[in-house]
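Progress note, sequence design subtask.
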């Protein structure tokens, strides 16, 4: 069965966006190792899941980047991968290679996981990822910690009611200064 893998950038104090959704705190000192890690996450996945708010910015950005910078290490992959946007407000998709999911979150995820194919990658946003966490739908967490902190913002670990436990699978400091912390949920 396919796995749901979360790849999310965050600050050292656990925020994934400022209160207004801005991500200007992200650092980007591209290094070959982190670029290879991100590319491998894309290569082992054939579907990208997004919440509507994140989709509005990220899809157009990567499609434009793929055209304007064809040598970018993963822009073409992100632009080309089929996307599923979870929304309660949109009735049709205006993006290429994208379909909308409007049903029950757990049911939609179960249907996706049952399909043949590679794993499924989640890019965000905060509310969508929080809902996935609350429902216990993420199989792997890959948290990219930026060497920054902000005083307030959005977090993904705020909607569950009990203690969540994880098994660490990797912790790696990359030359550009980011750390990737990888976990699997612990099933007690």
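Output:
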């Amino acid at each position: 069965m396919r796995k749901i893998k979360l790849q999310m950038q965050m600050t050292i104090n656990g925020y994934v966006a400022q209160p207004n959704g801005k991500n200007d705190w992200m650092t980007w000192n591209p290094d070959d190792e982190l670029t290879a890690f991100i590319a491998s996450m894309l290569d082992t996945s054939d579907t990208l899941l997004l919440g509507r708010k994140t989709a509005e910015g990220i899809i157009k950005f990567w499609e434009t980047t793929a055209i304007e910078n064809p040598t970018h290490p993963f822009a073409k992959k992100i632009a080309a991968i089929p996307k599923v946007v979870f929304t309660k407000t949109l009735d049709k998709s205006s993006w290429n290679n994208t379909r909308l999911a409007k049903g029950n979150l757990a049911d939609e995820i179960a249907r996706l996981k049952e399909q043949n194919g590679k794993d499924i990658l989640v890019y965000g946003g905060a509310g969508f990822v929080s809902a996935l966490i609350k429902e216990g739908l993420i199989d792997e967490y890959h948290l990219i910690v930026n060497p920054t902190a902000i005083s307030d913002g959005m977090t993904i670990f705020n909607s569950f009611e009990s203690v969540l436990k994880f098994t660490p699978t990797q912790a790696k400091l990359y030359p550009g200064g980011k750390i990737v912390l990888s976990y699997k949920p612990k099933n007690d």
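Strands lie at 4-10, 45-51, 83-86, 98-101, 119-124, 140-145, 166-173, 179-185. Work on this subtask will continue into the next period as scheduled.
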